Target: Naringenin-chalcone synthase
Amino acid sequence: MTHSPVLLHSFQSQPPKHHSGQGAILEWIAAAHAQAEITLQKPTTDEAREAITRKYRKLVMRFGCSTDRIRSRNSALDDFTHTDWDRMRIFRLKEYPSGKPCGERSRFFREVSGLAFDQFYAEEADPPPVLIHVTCTGYVSPSGAQRLVAKRDWGQSTEVIHAYHMGCYASLPAIRMAAGFVERGKARVDIVHTELCTLHMDPTQHLPEQLVVQTLFADGVIRYSASRMGEGPPVANGLELIATREEIVPNTEDAMSWMVSDFGMLMTLSRKVPDHIRAGLGAFLDRLAATAGLTTAQLCEAALFAIHPGGPRIIDEIAEHLGLRPEQIQASNAILGDFGNMSSATLPHVWKAILEDGAVQPGTLIVSLAFGPGLTISGALLRKSA
Amino acid sequence: MTHSPVLLHSFQSQPPKHHSGQGAILEWIAAAHAQAEITLQKPTTDEAREAITRKYRKLVMRFGCSTDRIRSRNSALDDFTHTDWDRMRIFRLKEYPSGKPCGERSRFFREVSGLAFDQFYAEEADPPPVLIHVTCTGYVSPSGAQRLVAKRDWGQSTEVIHAYHMGCYASLPAIRMAAGFVERGKARVDIVHTELCTLHMDPTQHLPEQLVVQTLFADGVIRYSASRMGEGPPVANGLELIATREEIVPNTEDAMSWMVSDFGMLMTLSRKVPDHIRAGLGAFLDRLAATAGLTTAQLCEAALFAIHPGGPRIIDEIAEHLGLRPEQIQASNAILGDFGNMSSATLPHVWKAILEDGAVQPGTLIVSLAFGPGLTISGALLRKSA
Model:
């Protein structure tokens, strides 16, 4: 491969409207599951209603991600701040036990995603030559990216690309695309993730895997830029892209799925996902390391690991499997704890944290790993610039 | 820009299961609109039922795309071959006047899209280093592309990219991405379009713009490859990528939209779209031509025009506007006539027709134009290789 060095830089995150403690979120989700079943079963006595409420609270507290792993999460949706089901935008559970169908969720996504682009670029005079919009939680065209470009009359300067429906690992194909556009002469590629995962909850889905998903995922919005090192306006610091690699693990088609369904988007998640990842990871890392002339042992000794928290325990399991030290996964754990799994926006939050951490020395290598349907293992090797 | 020459080649199309004359399709659509209203209105007399049937037949025949512009279209869905609404997979209109909600449409897309990948690669031993799946009509992960790679154990050789939800012009961002990946050292990038537009009809949508959409769009499935000219296995002939350009027309956000809605995906389309395209096209072509050191006048004199048929009259209107001769738009008209608007799969069908037409001399320039939400005008300048 003949990469020129590409730098990822100028990270800015935008906290979605509501920041809530995980304990409060778990209570809300328990109440939503109970209300969904009350709407479906129409119990006629207080006892029956209370039994339903107790049952689903117990289930959510048992299988949901606990507060020792995730302290807080963000959501753009006002619905999560109260349990007055008649005042909900999506979770009007007395009429729609699953929440509203896809159209209203798309309209909400359009509003919030549009605002995110407006805010990110409010102070910015220079149009990016390429603007990549990454999401797997809302499909509306014109997108926030396209509407920004139309509004600001950047249409002749900015090409918009949608990198949609690649799931949690999508920052990695996005930076591969960005590197290709830089290679073809574009001076700067901006990447914006708007992930509104909480929008797709369906409280009639009570399976343990669904309770994990519902209590793990959160909203996240972040932007960053890719450009050739040393070109354009000086960049204070960034992450140099050294190598990328993406693989699909054989015979894992059924391990995980993500599709547009009747009431928003629906995920399925097998309990075997962590096993599949562990089984494939060593050889994957060997090949990723080799493209940079390194070995997995060298990376495990010296690199930081930016690991997408596909499940609540995946960071710990990988760290244990590879023999990593706590400081090597500190940023990944901190982002999971503060924000949960923000789908494709998660890894960029980890990159931002590493970049802004003064204790991380220039020259430090960063192994980035994320996972998604396929099963896909996607990775990149980055280096903190001087 | 520093492109190395990239060649598009090895086009293969795969006709969706059912090929129907436009006359028969118009009758089916008229019957579906009538049945949807009969389900909603519950008329109690034969007269009332017949009045509804007459009304919607008249509307569909008045506003639908007539048989003089579109002779036939393809669909993967058996539903369109009969009007026994109880036997439908999606259009079970006696229970669901809009057809079934999104989930069943996604499941059908998953099946058909999966089969398309299996068939395209059945005889192929060499995994493509990159496989770009393009669609705006079905969002299911693992995608057909990912499942193919998993099944064939190509996971270590093939990176899958989803280029989703960019609408009718998506072949152009796809080839820009492909060129970037080639530039970064990938020997071959395959691009597969699976567009099942007919899956998203909602026969309760009776507005004239919706009748145009419902009678214009069709299913289309096609693959092709991009690689550096002169590298890899010899290619009999192809289209050399000379220049690309994409612009968003200011203040046209509301002219066209495409989003996930309650009953499949919904398009809106303003009557002003052709005016916006005409207004922006001249200057757009000037800039596209200039990147190749040419002028619009030279292109209008010498090039063929591969024009996406965004509406039934757009090819003619552009030809008239630019003063093109009938042979310059012959392939575009032929594809529209035989297959309708297959969204992003359309332009690749036109490219294939031009490539296979022995009467088109090597060295012939091909201006490619397509349109979508934004409003986006996207273009490429290609040249038929020797």
Chain A touches chain B through 67 residues (CB under 8 Å). The CA atoms of residues 8 and 360 of chain A lie 16 Å apart.
